């Protein structure tokens, strides 16, 4: 869906939802760091190969995979997650899920735009684009939780 449909959608000239990140964000909490980085690498590489972007998505996706455990521990009040629980609205609530997805999607989008521009010259514009793209992407992610995921 990301490759064939969403990569061809540019709302307002620059908003391109990156819903493929949901595949990484919905992985179980127990996934080890090495496996998480491998999945991140191959997910980003798949998008790079299909869009001919030469490592931009791979680098940004690896960053998200690397900081995911830290973000989970920072935003969660729980010390231990129940074995087998997944990062879903059903288990942790809408507020937790939106915060979780927003932080990681913003990091992904911001790093993608910064790597792409390779400059801080338009930093305010990059932040604006990142915030708008992240907001629309998270909205789609939340809607997909209600429409497609029934666990």
Explain what the structure shows.
The chain has 151 residues and is an all-alpha fold. It has helices spanning 21-25, 33-51, 56-75, 89-117, 123-147. Helix 3 packs antiparallel against helix 4 and helix 4 runs antiparallel to helix 5 (123-147). The protein is globular. The two termini are 21 Å apart.
Number of domains as seen in the coordinates: 1
How many strand segments?
0
Q: Helix and strand succession?
A: HHHHH
Low-pLDDT stretches: none
Spatial separation of the terminal alpha carbons = 21 Å
Beta-strand portion reads under 5%
Helix content: 55-70%
Q: What's the overall geometry? A: globular
Reported for the largest beta sheet, the result is: none
Q: Which value, in Å, is the CA radius of gyration?
A: 15 Å
Count helical runs.
5
Structural class, please?
mainly alpha
Mean pLDDT: 84
Keywords:
about 0% strand, about 150 residues, single chain, 5 helices, globular
Question: Topology, pairings included?
Answer:
Blueprint: H1 21-25, H2 33-51, H3 56-75, H4 89-117, H5 123-147
Write a compact overview of the structure shown.
The protein has 5 helices and no strands. By secondary structure, it is mainly α.
